[in-house]
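Dear support,

I submitted the protein below through the web form. The confirmation email said the job was done, but the results page showed an empty box. After a refresh the structure appeared. I'm attaching both so you can tell me whether what I see now is the final result or a partial one.
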Amino acid sequence: MDAGFVEPSAGEIRAGDRVISSPAFTLPPEQRKMSMIFQSYALWPHMTVAQNVGYGLALRRLPRSDIAKRLDEILRVTKLEALAERYPGELSGGQQQRVALARVDRRARDAAAR
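What the results page shows now:
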């Protein structure tokens, strides 16, 4: 319900002062400006760390220079720069978790919303 994939039958869910979900109204997931991380991390095994992290930015067709700049910053902040060309299967569980976190980093989400 938080993510917007299931509508509540009673009550309401608020983000700050705005209602995002109730039986009468449900804000679509893409308009919530929220991200979620799956328990299994849901990393694409055929993509490198950099490709996994940058996928959402590329999907929104941001200029390549913007993607590269934001990707560099996110990888630096999450201490994943040295692992950028590795695949998820080559990472420890903690490293995979950081990739999942980097993928939903606020800066990446903000860039996608533009």
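Response: this is the final, complete result; the empty box was a page-load delay. Residues 108-114 have pLDDT under 50 and may be disordered.
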